[in-house]
Amino acid sequence: GYLGTELDVGVRYRVLAAGATLTAGLEAGVFTPGSAFEDAEGNRRGALQGARLSLEGRL
After folding, report:
1. What's the whole-number mean pLDDT along residues 25-47?
2. What is the domain range of residue 12?
3. Of 24, 43, 23, 18, nearest to 33 (Cα)?
C-alpha cells in the first residue's frame, strides 16, 4: 500500500558580528499516513506533526 506523504520546511538565519556567529533555525514537518497504515477496519491514524527550533553560537 501507499505509505503516505511528508512535507518538510525549514529556515535559518545567521548573524556575523565581532568575530562571533549566531545561527537560529526553525524546521517543521507533517506526515499524512497512506493506505499502508490502515487497521483491520480501514481506519487511518491522523496526520503527525513535528517541529524543531535551534540556536547556535560560535566564538
Report:
1. 95
2. 4-58
3. 43
